[in-house]
Inverse folding.
C-alpha cells in the first residue's frame, strides 16, 4: 500500500464485487491507540489484554 488512504481491493469469485480490506493502516493505528487508552483506564485483566492486543497489532503495522 502506497499510503494509508489507498485501500487495496480484490475480486472474490463468490461475491463478484471488489471488497475493501477490513482495516486500512490508518484505521489500525487508531485502533491501537484506543486499545492503549483502554489499557490505561481499565486496571483489570481486560485492560491488560487490550494492551497486549495493541502491542501485537502495532508490530504488524507498516512503519510510517
Amino acid at each position: 500500500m502506497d499510503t494509508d488512504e489507498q485501500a487495496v481491493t480484490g475480486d472474490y469469485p463468490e461475491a463478484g464485487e471488489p471488497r475493501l480490506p477490513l482495516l486500512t493502516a490508518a484505521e489500525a493505528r487508531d485502533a491501537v491507540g484506543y486499545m492503549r487508552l483502554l489499557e490505561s483506564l481499565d486496571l483489570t485483566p481486560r485492560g491488560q489484554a487490550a494492551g497486549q492486543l495493541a502491542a501485537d497489532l502495532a508490530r504488524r503495522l507498516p512503519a510510517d
Remarks:
- Residues 42 and 48 are 8 Å apart (CA to CA).
- The chain has a mean pLDDT of 78.
- The radius of gyration is 15 Å.
- The first helix runs from residue 25 to 41.
